[in-house]
Amino acid sequence: MNSSVRPDRQWHRPLGNESDFIDLKKAWRAVWARKWMILLLTLVITALTAFALTRMTPLYKGVTTVVIETGSDPLIDFQPNQGNRAAQANEYLETQIGLMQSRGVAEMVVRDLNLTEHPDFDPRQQPEPLIDVSGMLQAVRGFFGGETDSRSGPLTDADVLDLTTQALMDRTSVWLEGKSHLARISVEMADPVLAARAANAIAENYVERQLEAKIDSSQEAAGWMRTRLEELRASLEESEERLQAYLDAEGLVDLDGVATISANELSLTGDRMIDAQRQRAEAESQYRQVQAMRNQGWERMASVPAVLSNPLVQQFKAEQAHARAKVEELSRRYGEKHPAMHSAQSDLAAASASLRHQVEQVVAGIERNYQLAVANENALRSSFDANKERIQNISRKEFGYRDLQREVDTNRALYETFMTRLRETTATSDLDANNARIVDRAIPAVEPSAPNKKLFLVVAVVLSLALGIALAIALDMFNTTIRSADEAESKLNLPVLGIVPLVPKKLQKHVAHLFQQDEERRFCEAIRTIRTNIMLNDLGASRQLIVITSSAPGEGKSTVAANMAFAMGQLQKVLLIDADMRRATLAKNFNFAPGTPGLADLMAGSAHLHECIQKVGNVDMLSAGSVPGNPLELLASSRFAKLLESVKGHYDRVIIDSPPSLAVSDATLLATLADSVIYVVKSESTSVRQAHKGIAHLSQGGASIMGVVLNQVDVKKARKHDEYSGYYDHYGYSEQTA
């Protein structure tokens, strides 16, 4: 079976994975092919939208502008604001917007304007809906065990008030104007005057509620501060009494002065004790030197530095040395008994006695000084320890005093702060502390705000166009019919032998004669192309007996068979056999006389071959003849096979018009007897699934399928989408020359 694909079709296919390729041209073709459907859908939706807009009640908006101030601080804000003031301001504004939309404000407006009796709000005056959707939903919820509306029977005044308030809240919207502090209050109603009144009433009630809240808050704050002030006064007095009791119990009069004097005395005593320690150390050193020389005589003690440094000792020691020097001089001059010698020795003894006496006094003074230094050091150490203990005792008392004093200072500061705030609050309690005021009051609107008919119509047109385009593309995506030669080749894996254009309606009644009469140039050229491809296929092997079939009736297989027979008849001797005995068309198309014998009569033996064959132009035709009750049995008989073998010896080409392959099994039987099969596919009608199934039936019987003929192609539409552009025009077969 020849399954080659024509090389002139290869360039139309995108490279790579086709699922990743977005063919915009193909999408445009799908849209353009269904342009009238899209236009009709757009017109219908636009007309319905316009009709619905005429039925809608116009709504009017009443808008009131309120300015919200955020500069005032709370009455009991003791500490400066350290946070992000911008963020706090935004939160405050959002809170005020919520208060404007609160149920309390809406309920006050409903009562002030008596909206419970207005026809637009009173549910008792509303007309019954054509379809009670809410009731149906309630029934469904009850069936599945869900919560249902417990209200049944006539509505009470409370129910009406609740429903009216909710309706007003649904029609109210509040927003901030940009980044300013201006709040817009909008109410949308069918009555422009009532809408303006409702917007103004919401603003007034909000301002009034804010003022009342401020006054109540100020009064509550003042009362709370008075109560708290009494508690703080009692706490202050109690802390002062505890402080005075502590001072009395500890005997403290001037804690700071006492603590300071004691600290100075301790410092001076410490300095004096250091001096006393140094003096005691010096006296002890001298004392120990003297004690070390006491047993060695007074002369050795006189050599001690502490004794020798005494001026009198030095003086007496000098007198002694002078007297000794005089004795030694006289002893060299006189004898020991010389009166001058006696006088000198007496002076020496007197000087030594004086020196000894002075040394003993100095040593006694050193001992006394040491004893005094030790006593002085001990006395100063005792005084220092006493002062230190006194300082520590005062410090301990000071800690308790400071603690009580801090408590007194804290209570006094808090008491004075509350006293100041209470005076400020009392002084400004009658001041208008409102932070919101109405800037612009709402006036009745002249033009309705909704519905915006122009916008709705534009949106309807755009959406309907988009819907139509999406629907067209979806239909094209889900369209499984074969529409082009590329699809036929790629999806059926068979070559396309030719593309037969759709003929005008005025020629469709005698479409079987078009090639014979040469009326439609494009059609005739398509048949010649098929003839050429068939003859090229004969180069390898002769295909004398050709069966032409299709998937289902109405795809034009009989037309292709008749015109192809005339085309072949120009070059060869051709026999056209109408084997579709269930829906025979050959005798009707060529106006054979009633009762003309045909294939059925020939197989039944009631007529001879030369009686059944009719000459039309250059083609011999064998019609179906009388419709039999068992056409498949006739075609399966040996008599039919012998007939084919007989006519093959007399004709160069035998073309058999077969029944559709999916309708009956006649085509499968005929395909087994033929040399090749031509499968006719109707453009944009035959689905890929049908063609696959029909070709599979033929292939299972061992048929050799030569190729596919794409029939009834709307060339005019295809040329607009560049399909087959120039397929005929470049060769002089344009629509103008046809």
Structural summary, described in words:
The chain is α/β, with parallel strands linked by helices. It has helices at residues 24-33, 35-55, 85-100, 103-113, 133-143, 157-170, 192-250, 255-293, 298-302, 305-308, 311-333, 339-427, 453-477, 485-492, 514-517, 521-537, 557-569, 586-589, 599-604, 609-612, 631-636, 638-648, 666-673, 688-700, 715-720; strands at 60-68, 172-176, 182-189, 436-440, 496-501, 545-550, 574-578, 613-616, 619-622, 653-657, 676-682, 705-713. The chain contains 25 helices and 12 strands. The strands form 2 sheets. The protein has an 8-stranded mixed sheet with strand order 5-12-11-6-10-7-9-8, sandwiched between helices. A 4-stranded antiparallel sheet has the order 2-3-1-4. A hairpin with a 5-residue loop joins strand 2 (172-176) and strand 3 (182-189). Mean pLDDT is 79; it is low at 1-20, 73-79 and 728-738.
The number of helical segments is 25
Largest sheet: 8 strands, mixed
Question: In CATH terms, what is the fold-level topology of one domain?
Answer: Rossmann fold
How much strand content do the residues show?
Answer: 5-15%
Distance between the termini: 36 Å
So, the CATH homologous superfamily of one domain? P-loop containing nucleotide triphosphate hydrolases
Compute the number of strand runs.
12
Poorly predicted sequence stretches spanning 5 or more consecutive residues: 1-20, 73-79, 728-738
CATH architecture of one domain: 3-Layer(aba) Sandwich
Strand order of the largest sheet: 5-12-11-6-10-7-9-8
